[in-house]
Structure formats: structure tokens, C-alpha cells
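Troubleshooting log. The previous run stalled partway through. Resubmitting the same two chains, unchanged.
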Amino acid sequence: MTAPRVAIVGATGLVGEMVLRILDERHFPLSRLDLFASSRSSGAQIEVLGQSSAVQPLDLQHPPDFTSIDLAFFAAGSDVSRALAQKAADAGTLVIDKSAAFRLEPDVPLIVPEVNAETLRGHKLIANPNCAVIPLAVMLAPVARRFGLEWVSVATYQSVSGAGRDALREFERQLAGDRTPPVALPRRIAGNVFPDNGPFDESGYNEEERKIAAEFKKILSDDAIRISATSVRVPVAVGHGEVVAFAPREPASRDQISQVLREAAGIKFLEGNSYATPLEVVGSDDVVVGRLRADAAHPGAYLAWVMSDNLRKGAATNAVQIAEAALSISVGARA
Amino acid sequence: MTAPRVAIVGATGLVGEMVLRILDERHFPLSRLDLFASSRSSGAQIEVLGQSSAVQPLDLQHPPDFTSIDLAFFAAGSDVSRALAQKAADAGTLVIDKSAAFRLEPDVPLIVPEVNAETLRGHKLIANPNCAVIPLAVMLAPVARRFGLEWVSVATYQSVSGAGRDALREFERQLAGDRTPPVALPRRIAGNVFPDNGPFDESGYNEEERKIAAEFKKILSDDAIRISATSVRVPVAVGHGEVVAFAPREPASRDQISQVLREAAGIKFLEGNSYATPLEVVGSDDVVVGRLRADAAHPGAYLAWVMSDNLRKGAATNAVQIAEAALSISVGARA
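Second attempt completed without errors. Output:
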């Protein structure tokens, strides 16, 4: 099998840039690299894999020739994915799509490699989940496999980078003294928090909360799990925190749950009352689970504090791991 | 009844200063005002109630003459309260104690005036609850009265001012570029969040979380309520947020819960998907409840987003309201 020809669509966004870095870190085998971005940021030169690459403009009317691309990471938002991802997959390209466009499509696998890598077999279009649901799935899938999972309730502490580069720049301007009204986010975020992440619907949940619930059930292939989320933005640059309450279906002691988490792939389990913070987790690919304890509100249930780098395992690392899994089971490369 | 002679013990702390401001705002009747603080900050002149008052040094070996003080607000921490509060009450002074020293003593009423003002009758030493539990009690006591309350699960987004002036100054220094290790808080808070608020015990809960649970049950006079908390510090100066999940004992519709909250004293109920943020709630005495919706994890339960100014209703306003309630039922004034 020859090394694949790889493209990044949305190469200058926070996630696209991180995909490049992760490919480099993991010595991902590739024979060519094409970088695409909106005309706003095309023309830039990006230093990657030891060489300088020009960012090519992405024109939805004249899309790239995907027949010469074996693997494409899409990280340019739902509109671009809707316009091009299926076309690329039809041309034979293995597409890993970071957007929400296809995640809940029944025939599109939604992959967290530690959980359900096998379901990508035979697919050319694969969806990468939301950055808040990936750590939740990494943490709770092993618990569900061992004891079942009755319900999950999560309150998030999501960093600004999860909302993209414009939001992060807005936050940085605010920290530097800018008092103008926010544009990229619904409220000022410096010195503030708000539970508002995408449009609300009649259920009272915002878009991010609905994504967390629906994607979690799809990744775990279990529609019977009851799950609710409150998605809150906090004035942190990178690193998503989550207060996770969950109930196993079968009785399980704290020691038993600890043992499952300690042994699970992708998890760094902190013993006792230890915990991680955003500043500590940045740069790591681990989902760090700490402060596991009995939930005094719900007999048999547990509480934990979960942290992950939302740009890495929450986005880019997971996408590259999907590509690695796909290539290893030989569905990815055209060769 | 003559206007009481009032003292503030801990007049230069964040809460002491706010007590002064609230007394002023509410035109609290008083015939004299004595301000006490540690020798570190005594000697300062404070502009209050239209005149400049000198801060007197507090010497635990030579305490103030409480026989000439009718009402004392204690806001100087648990050590000072343990040393002086009972002595002051024994001398006939009505003591409103902001510290945690006496909150769980069976013979000391723990008061949120909207909830249990009547239980202060006949007492000279009255405890003011924790700043995270006051909004929770204001919000849920009316629900409990109407429908009962089965369980409560809360995840907090607590501002730095709740940890006192040293923590707030440390936060401000960090925002200005200071990279030295934190002293007042267990982790750097600028650009960070952490679920660590007082020592952990073998239950896995930290001190603040145990306070929230124990004080809540005491204020509502109901030990059967199951309650768990996760207390998280966020990089916000003032304003505590809480994700609150709760289950009424009797079935209650979202409309019925809304109606109870809409009519309850001390609550500003926001309809539909509306919510408040810390920056919006600063300066208000309301407990602002928004985003009430069915909890998809728990049939019959609800989720809400609750905000309050932790220095006002969470501390100083509640203390002054206790004093007002005590004076109105004639236990406060010595006259």
C-alpha cells in the first residue's frame, strides 16, 4: 500500500491547523499534502511536515479534483461539508468530516476509535463527533460495556476555542481591553460564563446540548440511555471540562468503576480526589478523568470531573486516529 | 424602638464592605456604626452613610464592648467568629454571622429570609449560609413547599470573589500578566477552571460541596432530600452560576414549576430559553432563574440555570435581610 495523498479542507482554522500538527507528531504516512481554505486565508504559506506549503483557495463552484486525493480531512464548517464531502467520497476519497453535517445520518458512521472503530468498515464518508461528546464517549463506553448505562447528566465548562478562531480572537481582544459588543459569541465571554451554544429549540436545549445527547447515543449504539446536557462556555482558551453524573445499569462499586476507567484506552484516570484543569490538559491526547465519587443525589450513580484538549482529542487527534484506523483496515487507501 | 447601634466585624473584606453598601442602599436605621478589622487594615477611613468612619483594630484578646452594640455583622472568617460571636450574643448583641463556624450547630438558626425567617425568633446568634447555597434555597424552597423535593444535583460556576479579597487580587494580578504560582487559590484561575474549593474528605466531596448539601437540608428542614454538588471555580470576578437539576416529589409540569418560581419572593424568573450571566447579575439582589426545562436524564425532573450576585444576595444582602427580619419581630433590638 502506498502512502496516501492527503488534503485538509479548512487548513487555516483552529482544527485544520491542529490536524496538520497531529499528522506531523504522529509521523502520519503521506505522499502528498494539499491544503485548502476559503479565499480569505488562501495564499498563505504554512510550514508543515518540514516544508512550506501554499494554501489553495477553495471554490465551491470549482472544487478540487478529489480523484487524486486519497484522504481528506474536512474542517471548514457544515456548509462546505454539505457542498463537497459526499462528492469527494463518491470520487473514492476517504473523507473524515469534522462538521455536524452528516453526524446523525444513519448511513454515516460517527467514530470515536476507542469505542466503535469497527463500524467504519466499508465507508468512505466518516463523521468526527462534537468536541464535548468525544471525551464523554471515551470515558463512558467502557463503563457501558461492562455494566450497562442507565443515564448520563453532564454540565460542561467549554473553552472558547471550541467555537472557532473568530471566537478565540474576540476573547483575546476582550482580555486586552476591548469593550465592544461581541460578534462571534452570543455574550461577552471575558470575565463571564453563559449557557448558550447554538440555537435553542422547543425542548429548551441548545444545539450543542442536543448534539451531545444524540451523538452520544449513536456512538454507543444505545438509544435507551437517557442523557441530558447543559453546555456552558467559560473564559478559557483551550480545554473542555465536564461534570459528569452517570448510573450503571448493573450495580457497580466505585472500585469497580475505577478499575474499568484505569484500564480503558484513551483515558488517564486520576485516583482519589485528584483532577486536571484546562491549563494542565492542553497538549495532551488523554481524556483525563478525576474525582470519581458516589453521587449523593442518586443511589448507585457516580460523579466525575473530566477534562480534555478540545482541539486535540476533541477534534484533530480523533480525526487522525479515525484515518489511521481506516487505513489499517484497508478501506481508506484507494490502492 | 430606638435605632440599633451596629457593628461590622471584618469591615474591610469584600463581604464587610458590601454589608456597608447594602445598609446604605436600604436606609437601614442605625444610631451608631462601629467598624472593626484586623490590625492589617485598621486605621483606614471608610466613607459610609454620608460620613467618614475610622476602622478600629480588632484585638481578640481585648474584644469590643458588645454591651453597647445591638447588632453585629460578623464577616471576618471562622476563627474570629469562633472567638467572639457567642460572647457577643451572650452580651445581648444580635449577631449575624457570615462564617461557616456555627451554620450546622443545631441550636443556631441558618437563615434565608424568604425561606425560614420565622426560625430566628428568640435567637441572638444567627448564621448566614454559604454563598452558593442561598440562591439554591431561594429557588427550590418554593418548589419543595408546593410539590416536595426528592433530589437536587448542582454543578456550580463560582466566581473568584466568593473566595475573598486575596483570591480576587490574585486573579486580577494574573489577568495583568503575573505568572507566579497561586497562593490564595489552589490553582491558577485566570484562563482556567478547577473543581476544588476547600479540603476533600473520604466521601470525595470538597468542603464547599459538603456545605452546600448540609446547609441546604438544614435551611429547608428536610433531611430526606438527596443532594449532591460539584463546586467549580471559574475566572469570573463576581456572580455565581449554577446548573441545577431537581426532582419534585409529586408530579409537576414545567408550567406548574414556572408558575411557582414566577410568584416566589426573591426570584426573577426568566421565561423560555432566557438566562442571565455573571456580568448581567452583578449589582442585583435577585436570584435569576432561567432555562427551566425537562431533564432528559430523569423523567419528572427539571434543569435550570441559576445566577446571583454572590457578594449581595449570596452574602451581604441576605445578612442585612436577616437583620431586618429579626428587628421586625423584635428580637434584635435590646430596647
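Takeaways: Chain A has nine helices and 13 strands. The first helix of chain A runs from residue 14 to 25.
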